[in-house]
Amino acid sequence: MARNMVGALQFLTVRRPTAPPAEEPEDITRPNVDGVAFRKTGKRGDHYQLLATVDLVDSAAVKARIDASMDLCGTVVTVIDDIRDGGGNGTSWTNQLVMGARVVNANRVESAVGGLGGTASKFILVIEFDLRDTRRSPAE
Fold first, then answer.
1. Domain count, the chain
2. What average pLDDT does range 11-33 have in this prediction?
């Protein structure tokens, strides 16, 4: 069963927009010439942000997850969203370039119910990844 993942890192949730790479038409105009012309410039993936949330057992695990997330910068990963398709099979996006990562929030919790760490979880960490879709076509 697929999990919510960015590369090899598992998260409780991942949220991303679902716009695949698409042809980008470019307008061709010349001074004093009537009419409209376009040309295709190729498929480009958008730069987007992904929010990933995870529960962790202690502050050392939080630091380790932050370090591991920062280490993904400059790598091409697969992103899996286990919830998006509703069946738990996971929707995946391959060839996603990690351009950056930053901590949005790291909070201590009083009591945890469920999650990846179960009842031992004491921290919730939210990381925002800056990604770019590098696939040449939506089917890749």
1. 1
2. 76
